[in-house]
Design brief:
Keywords (chains B, D): Kinase, Transferase
Domain DhaL (chains B, D): 7-205
Shape of chain B: globular
Strand order of the largest sheet of chain A: 1-2-4-3-5-6
Pfam families (chains B, D): Dak2
Organism (chains B, D): Reinekea marinisedimentorum
Number of helices of chain A: 8
Bound molecules: adenosine-5'-diphosphate, magnesium ion
CATH topology of chain B: Serine Threonine Protein Phosphatase 5, Tetratricopeptide repeat
Number of domains of chain A: 2
Radius of gyration of chain A: 19 Å
Distance between the termini of chain A: 40 Å
Oligomer: heterotetramer
Low-confidence stretches of chain B: none
CATH architecture of chain B: Alpha Horseshoe
Shape of chain A: globular
CATH topology of the largest domain in chain A: Rossmann fold
CATH class of the largest domain in chain A: Alpha Beta
Structural class of chain B: mainly alpha
Low-confidence stretches of chain A: none
Number of domains of chain B: 1
Protein name (chains B, D): Dihydroxyacetone kinase-like protein
Strand order of the largest sheet of chain B: 1-2
Largest sheet of chain A: 6 strands, mixed
């Protein structure tokens, strides 16, 4: 394994220290693994909390800051934080307006979140949980509970964060974020394996001429393998499935994210984005807002996640609100 | 032997911890096939918790296991850490005394299993650690009912755990990170079940030698 | 080669289209290879122009926008644009306040820039050229003209762009940017080879257990090879040379950039940043402002560039001004 | 032969273009050792310009070469493209007539070389294309002065170009992307000099067969 690390058991704490040193005016690390805004939000506004393993930087903690997350509870590499830590963060976040707790649908995250929710309820904390699960790789007929949460959490943070910042009550913040969340779909494609930075081991076994559409968040399989395709063809295969999943119609206002997972260059992501724009405009639909870059990575795995969503005028207005986090800043 | 005291119970888990720590690369490798390649790393953290918590038996056994479960959960051990934490808290909650007879011992393990199942959401056949753990604990119960010794209990339990572990090879995963691989995961062993099988193997060896 | 591309000769035009489609409110592509701000700057303000090959995204064109660049002239992959195209952009930029033309010190870029400057002068365009050359890998005794331009161009764009946006005359914009430029130093380290996306060929021949400090912008060698070192040690080796190069003193206000060149994760970059912060504070110096992420990449090459600079109160104030470009947005 | 007309001059460059296009991977590979791996790609673009510009000779020769040089420069060909563009513009500026004698031919090439050198900043021995080009053009001049035929001029020029190219192997680079490799670049051939050597090789073959 070729990575710039020190002791493998210290990676997570050291990387969080590096994050806080790089953005001292935006974030701080509390209790070793909880990333919090430097200037806490007004307690009369809903606090947004999330949890997840490390190794996916900038996600999740890179989106803590004004207009997005208040607390991100970090586990270890690819490992959910334990329920006790999550409970600790929910207590920190506890405020008069209540807490929205955004959880990606992965076994470990959900186990931890559920236990922490139990503890929080027993403590009388006003917290609502929102599960993201927009990976359609298992098929459209799949129970929504069986879908994984991929990069779709990031725009959900954005919209929930903006609604909370606007002072909306918890039920409203939840309604808006969940409405947007329900109309999301993501597919991931990988071309090369990720290396687990602690074990040094490759995850997966993609051959030299193969790619896999439907890849998971850590290089765990789950999709269709095929020979490597050109950028345009890859984009079309994925886009068509996403359009079907969220039932794209003429005049829809669409969100498009092209999220690089590691070694794939921004150069390539622009080619993919271009193909999506051209193909959607052929279908009479239009991209209202988009983002291209690395938001949620899988170590150095070459590939990307394509995520589409539908805006209504409400969610679009919250997308457009300013935010100021380490890796999403918007005027 | 027909009873097990607190210190021997600790000894069983410490023995399991020692064996599992030798299998970290193997467990990571199994998880690399169908998951995210870190089950060995998870178990390493779980074992470090066990090692530092169970070296003495000064606290009451129930309290000690409850603390250990909580500590394991605090180690950021992904799915497996959370579930094993629950398992230990459950044993702690279900253990009747500092020294227990065979039926009480089986009941304590059943209590651990129930707690784990309650959080897990998995069913037998879902290709998870439960597929090793459930038959193992059923074997403990059955043996205890039949008046077997503690040695005999674990002798049967390890067989059941290992069979359950081997059986995961043919299963289509329905929980955990392997789920999305569907049919393609057939032919691979479940890493969590491997840990459980190693754990019962060590229990058995420890008890046989004790 | 495993990359998401279409025809290799179309990569550059397609990626620029993708950029413009992704940021329609910020940039546009003119004359196929010139990236320009969507809303042109007031002609009474100095325009900032740069040039360079593609394949380094987000640089250079990802920094076109309010508060940074006005025009970026793009060549092909790793190839400078020809002088005719550069001249065309200088004509577009020509305005009453004049043009600052920022060029990275690479043979092709400089050849093209010099010819375009000749043509521009003949045309009566008021343009001043600023050369960035902060790569210290060739040694501190090396003639400054023989040093390559690496990621240091990006903070120079920022400071020049902010000074121009503030309405300063050309000479002043030049003075401030050049003052900052003179106090910059960069070193690059690579762990794996880049693949040229057109030839499909690996550039360089790093062995499985080697890294190279002093690597160039395209994977061309130039430094010392050694066995792979931990993050901290790598950071210390590089940092010490940079501190010597710009003569870091107690109470200096430093800029620190950790620029990922491709496959190296943000996780690792944070570890490196942390080591720099700790080591600098041991030396009694402090990081005033920093950035960590991918600014100027070298395809999927694993590695990073560490760039340090010294602020004075003037350059620091321009660093802190807002900007709104595709890949550097600041409130 | 003692004169060269416009159409034969075009033929020489078209022949060179054809040979160079067959060596694109080789030139990329050379550049991968000491540079950024794209010199073949650069030359491919240069050759495409040559092919589309020189298929007819309706414009005056000086004008045609000047246009070609500008077109090559517009192809985003990095250092080499810019320099070769200058070279052709220089030949265009220095060529005396549609049909030139040996001394005029040598003078035209000298004019191209001077233009290239003026932009380049490189000196002989810097491990660049100049190390092949300078001796080649000096050979042309020397042969012309000695009253040689055009065939003899190119026969000597190709030898000089090739020797110069081979000599780059031992040189420490002082310009271009290889510069920073310093001593480590010794042992590698310069890709730009390779192109120049192939170009003169083709000139010679074309003239010999014409
Ligand atoms: N819901 C569940 N119920 C029971 N066991 C589970 C469940 N989810 C995962 N597991 C077990 O956990 C193992 C994976 O553990 P580990 O790799 O440590 O965690 P993670 O999946 O979070 O990376 C699987 O092999 C499986 O046996
Ligand atoms: N200043 C210079 N003078 C003469 N030749 C040069 C100079 N710089 C580079 N070259 C030549 O150009 C070649 C590289 O060309 P190419 O790879 O196409 O361009 P780039 O270096 O921009 O990628 C070198 O091998 C060298 O012969
Ligand atoms: Mg995990
Ligand atoms: Mg795992
Ligand atoms: Mg080049
Ligand atoms: Mg080159």
């Amino acid at each position: 394994m070729k990575k710039f690390i020190n002791l493998s058991e210290n990676i997570t704490t050291e990387l969080l220290q590096g994050l806080a040193m790089t953005f001292p005016e935006k974030v701080q690390v509390l209790s070793e693994k909880i990333v919090a805004r430097k200037t806490p939000k007004d307690p009369n506004k809903v606090a947004i909390v999330t949890l997840g393993g490390a190794g996916h930087e900038p996600a999740l903690s890179g989106f803590v800051g004004e207009g997005m997350l208040d607390y991100s509870v970090v586990g270890d590499i690819f490992a959910a934080p334990g329920a006790p830590k999550v409970f600790e963060a929910l207590k920190m976040a506890n405020c008069s307006a209540g807490v929205l707790f955004i959880v990606l649908n992965h076994e470990g995250d959900v186990l931890s979140a559920n236990m922490a929710m139990e503890m929080a309820k027993r403590e009388g904390i006003n917290v609502k949980m929102l599960l993201t699960h927009e990976d359609i790789s298992a098929g459209l007929d799949q129970d929504i509970k069986d879908r994984r949460g991929l990069v779709g959490c990031v725009p959900v943070y954005k919209i929930a964060g903006a609604a909370a910042e606007a002072g909306l009550p918890l039920d409203e913040v939840f309604r808006i974020a969940e409405g947007f969340n329900k109309n999301l779909a993501t597919l991931a494609v990988a071309m090369s394996n990720a290396t687990h930075p602690q074990s040094g081991m490759a995850i997966g076994d993609l051959a030299d001429d193969e790619m896999e559409i439907g890849m998971g968040q850590h290089g765990e399989g789950g999709g269709g393998r095929m020979k490597v395709q050109p950028a345009d063809d890859t984009a079309y295969i994925m886009l068509d499935q996403l359009c079907e999943a969220i039932n794209v119609q003429t005049n829809d206002e669409l969100m498009l994210l092209i999220n690089g997972t590691g070694a794939t260059t921004l150069m390539e992501l622009f080619l993919v984005a271009r193909a999506c724009h051209l193909s959607l405009s052929d279908k009479g639909a239009a991209v209202a807002r988009s983002k291209v870059g690395e938001m949620l990575t899988v170590q150095e795995m070459a590939g990307f996640q394509m995520c589409m969503g539908k805006f209504d005028s409400e969610s679009l207005s919250y997308w457009d609100k300013p935010c100021d986090t380490p890796y999403w800043t918007q005027l | 032997m027909n009873t097990l005291n607190h210190s021997k119970l600790n000894g069983m888990f410490l023995a399991a911890s020692a064996s599992i720590q030798q299998q970290v690369p193997y467990l990571n490798e199994l998880d690399g096939k169908t998951g995210d390649g870190d089950h060995g790393t998870t178990m390493h953290r779980v074992c470090q918790s066990i090692d530092s918590s169970l070296t003495n038996s000064e606290r009451p056994v129930g309290q000690q296991l409850d603390d250990l479960g909580w500590d394991i959960m605090s180690q950021d051990g992904g799915s497996a850490g959370m579930l094993i934490g629950k398992f230990l808290m459950g044993i702690g909650a279900g253990i009747a005394a500092e020294e227990v007879n065979t039926e009480q011992l089986a009941a304590a393990f059943r209590s651990g299993l129930d707690q784990m199942v309650a959080s897990s959401g998995a069913k037998p056949g879902d290709k998870t650690m439960l597929d090793a753990l459930i038959p193992a604990i059923e074997a403990l119960e059955q043996q205890a009912r039949q008046g077997a010794s503690i040695e005999q209990m674990f002798e049967q339990a390890v067989k059941a755990a290992d069979e359950g572990f081997q059986a995961t090879k043919a299963m289509v995963p329905a929980r955990g990170r392997a789920k999305n691989m569907g049919e393609r995961a057939v032919g691979y062993l479940d890493p969590g079940a491997a840990s459980m099988s190693i754990m019962f193997e060590s229990f058995n060896q420890y008890i046989a030698a004790a």
